C-alpha cells in the first residue's frame, strides 16, 4: 500500500478525512496559514502521535508509537458511546543550571487520540499492552451470525 500525501497528513491507501466514518480527528483548515500561530512545543506531541488501525477477522488492532513513555504515563479508555480514547503526557526534560542546550526536537506535552468503534466491537474485552515504546490496543469483534437459511419445498 502506498502513502498518499493529503491535506490531512500521510495516510495509507485512499483513506481521507471524509471517507473514514470512525475517525474523530479534527481537521484545521487554517493550520498552516499565516498569521495563525504554529503549535507551541508543549502541544506538538498531540499532533505527532500517529496511530495505525487495522481490522483482522477477530479484532480491531490499534498501534501507537509512544517512544520514551512508560505505561503509567498512558491512558486507554472506552466511553459509553463506543469511543476508544488513547491519551498521555510526555514531560519536558528538566533543565540543569549548568547545561547548555544545542537543540531540543523531541516532543513534549499532552496527546489524545479518539476513535469511534464499530457496532461489532466487544467493549468489555478490550486489552492493551505496551512493549518497546509501542502501545497495542486490541478490541475483539463479535462473530457475525449468518442468517439461518431454510429451503422451502415447492409444491405442484
From TrEMBL:
Domain of life the protein comes from: Eukaryota
Protein name: Uncharacterized protein
